[in-house]
Amino acid sequence: MMNNLFLIFDPSTSLNFSFNWLVMFSWIFIIPYFYWSCSSLFSISWKKLLKNFFQEIENNLKSHKTKNSLIVTSIFLFILINNILGLFPYIFTASSHMIFTMFFAFPLWIKMIIYLVLNKTNMMMSHLVPLGSPIFLSFFMVLIETVSNLIRPITLSVRLMANMISGHLLIHLLSSISLLGETFLIMSIPLMMILILLETAVAFIQSFVFAILISLYINET
Fold first, then answer.
1. Per-residue pLDDT tens for 55-89?
2. Residue 90 Rama label (left phi>0; alpha psi -120 to 50; beta)
3. Domains of the chain: which residue ranges?
4. 117 pLDDT band (50/70/90 cuts)?
5. Mean pLDDT within 183-200
6. DSSP string of the chain?
């Protein structure tokens, strides 16, 4: 048994290398399915999922911002694949690390802030004080809105990371019960199946929430 429960999230395969990060490129093996002469059930399911999600993003964005739909859909697909791969035994879960989630959240957030400062400064400043706010509360409203804008990439990253870590820790703890004997093993199997189904749903939901929030932030620029 591991001395440290969080070792299951350690990306290091040795003292000098972190080859576990290579699992992020596993999506490359899925691409050839889209080029089969006869589509499989797997490729048909993915096409329907992507088509529905792409349509959802286009409906969510303003008409002049639909060009960002492809970027948001790509982020959703990449995160979703990494979330699902992390549910398989002995496969590293990249999305459970802050560096992975920050890689998507921070560049997009910085890009939107720079765009607003350079092109829509007046609109950006007017959003700091919501319409109808009392004059004596203006200072506090500016402070609150500024803080909420600054922590957006952090909350976006932590939400995904925390959900993936909590689910994997729960699965690991429950699987450790089976070491106590055959009786506990038989009792834990139904719970493990339910938990894995729940974590599969969480993998989809968190990917969807991450992408939808990004599309909402893009809408505000």
1. 778 777 777 777 778 888 888 888 888 888 888 87
2. left
3. 69-220
4. confident
5. 82
6. --SSGGGGG---SSSS--GGGGGGGGGGGTGGGGG-SS--HHHHHHHHHHHHHHHHHHHHS-GGGGGGHHHHHHHHHHHHHHHHHTTSTT---GGGSHHHHHHHHHHHHHHHHHHHHHH-HHHHHHTTS-TT--GGGHHHHHHHHHHHHHTHHHHHHHHHHHHHHHHHHHHHHHHHHGGG-HHHHHHHHHHHHHHHHHHHHHHHHHHHHHHHHHHHHHHT-
